[in-house]
Specification:
The complex is a heterodimer of chains A (113) and B (112).
Chain A (H helix, E strand, L loop, with lengths): L3 E4 L2 E5 L4 E7 L4 E9 L6 E7 L4 E4 L2 E6 L4 E6 L8 E9 L7 E2 L3 E6 L1
Parallel strand pairs in A: 2-11
Antiparallel strand pairs in A: 1-3, 3-8, 4-5, 4-9, 6-7, 7-8, 9-10, 9-11
Chain B lengths: L4 E3 L2 E4 L5 E6 L6 E7 L5 E8 L2 E5 L7 E4 L6 E5 L8 E8 L6 E2 L3 E5 L1
Parallel strand pairs in B: 2-11
Antiparallel strand pairs in B: 1-3, 3-8, 4-5, 4-9, 5-6, 7-8, 9-10, 9-11
The chains are: A mainly beta (113), B mainly beta (112).
């Protein structure tokens, strides 16, 4: 059972546009939601994360919007740059320190100059 | 910044043989994880540790898998015997807080 779902699977935007990557989850016990960025041949790197007590988390050009009632969240990348072209993974974990992360299948973002 | 180191970066092995994947986590991290990624797809959880003890194993952590910490520093993931479906990139990760683990660059395992 896929606990974390992402859409779209791939997205292409022009440089300067806002890219929006969506994520939804099944498990109500999930309370921590990191987004990871992965470039080809590299490991995933933490980009930004949010806890379920918040509805928004911003870090520079990256913003997470979180809707606990609908079990949905989205990652907005404003002023997209070609260097943002990567695969983005939405992940979730439950309460309990050290809990495993459940990952979505990823979304491949391409930013065209 | 701190890095999780994985050796080797690529391993090619014949089906049925044993393989050992090595990972050197960040030195002061107490939480440790192994994940499996097939063909650039989602990361699948295998096992996690706290302070050297297993916390949880997933269904993907088959009987052929074992994890050790030989000398208290680096971790190993051993697969014996290997199967074709074990071909994947294996990532280890570590964390000081139990959240937002820091991932290594992975070991690409090719089972022929």
């Amino acid at each position: 059972q896929q606990q974390v779902r992402q859409s779209p699977q791939s997205l292409t935007v022009w440089e300067g546009e806002t890219a929006i990557l969506n994520c939804s989850y099944e498990n109500s016990a999930f309370d921590y939601f990191p987004w990871y960025q992965q470039f080809p041949g590299e490991g995933p790197a933490l980009l930004i994360a949010i806890r379920s007590v918040s509805d928004k988390k911003e870090d520079g050009r990256f913003t997470i919007f979180f809707n606990k009632r609908e079990k949905k969240l989205s990652l907005h990348i404003t002023d997209s740059q070609p260097g943002d072209s990567a695969t983005y993974f939405c992940a979730a974990s439950g309460q309990g320190t050290g809990s495993k992360l459940s990952f979505g299948k990823g979304a491949k973002l391409t930013v065209s100059p | 910044g701190p890095k999780v180191l994985q050796i080797p970066s690529h391993q090619i092995i014949d089906m049925g043989q044993m393989v050992t994947l090595n990972c050197d986590p960040v030195s002061n991290h107490l939480y440790f994880y192994w994940y499996k990624q097939i063909l650039g797809q989602q990361m699948e959880f295998l096992v996690n540790f706290y302070n050297g003890k297993v916390m949880e194993k997933s269904k993907l952590f088959k009987d052929q898998f074992s994890v050790e910490r030989p000398d208290g520093s680096y971790f190993t993931l051993k697969i014996q015997p290997t199967a074709l479906e074990d071909s994947a990139v294996y990532f280890c990760a570590s964390s000081s807080t139990g959240e937002a683990p820091l991932f290594g660059e992975g070991t690409r395992l090719s089972v022929l």
